[in-house]
Amino acid sequence: MDAMLLPANKACPIAGTLTVLGQKWNLLLLREAFLGSARFAEFQRIGIPTATLGGRLEALVAAGLLERWAYRDEGERTREEYRLTQAGRDALPILAALAQWGETHLELGDSPQVGFVSASSGRRARLEFVDDNGDLVEADDVRVARAE
């Protein structure tokens, strides 16, 4: 039985997100797309097997996170590159949260491979919780609640 169809998971946004992003490689492929990778060969740099890469890119397109765009280098056949959609760009906080957690709780060495900065100021950016009024809420004051 598919565990995602159980009542505890069926309408859960976390479970639903995991069905799309929880597949091995998908979050790293999104990271690479945010870093500017668009072509198949550019995505291969993360070490994903070629046979797997095509399927993962197809799944991200089917889920609406990436879209295909045709391009043609001079003297070459037409090929496709992949660009983030709005849904893909909306996944940025997920990547930032994972990176922020990893920087805090994992031994990654002196300089993390990826960071998040303000495009306008260049200053480091981090995630925070805010309430409906826009006021900062400390993480220790946040709890997970079931919808009623």
Describe the structure.
With 148 residues, the chain is of the alpha+beta class. The protein has one domain: Arc Repressor Mutant, subunit A (Orthogonal Bundle), CATH 1.10.10. The chain is built from 7 helices and 4 strands. The chain has helices spanning 7-10, 13-21, 26-34, 40-44, 50-62, 86-89, 92-105, and strands spanning 66-71, 79-84, 129-130, 136-137. The strands form 2 sheets. The protein has a two-stranded antiparallel sheet with strand order 1-2. A two-stranded antiparallel ribbon has the order 3-4. A hairpin with a 5-residue loop joins strand 3 (129-130) and strand 4 (136-137). The protein is globular. The two termini are 26 Å apart. The model has no long low-confidence stretch (mean pLDDT 93).
Write a concise keyword list for the protein shown above.
alpha+beta; single chain; globular; 7 helices; 148 residues; two-stranded antiparallel sheet
Q: Helix tally?
A: 7
Instruction: Say which CATH homologous superfamily is assigned.
Output: Winged helix-like DNA-binding domain superfamily/Winged helix DNA-binding domain
Secondary structural class: alpha+beta
Q: Mind describing the biggest β-sheet?
A: 2 strands, antiparallel
Strand content: 5-15%
CATH architectural group? Orthogonal Bundle
Strand order of the largest sheet: 1-2
Mean pLDDT: 93
Topology:
Layout: H1 7-10, H2 13-21, H3 26-34, H4 40-44, H5 50-62, E1 66-71, E2 79-84, H6 86-89, H7 92-105, E3 129-130, E4 136-137
Antiparallel strand pairs: 1-2, 3-4
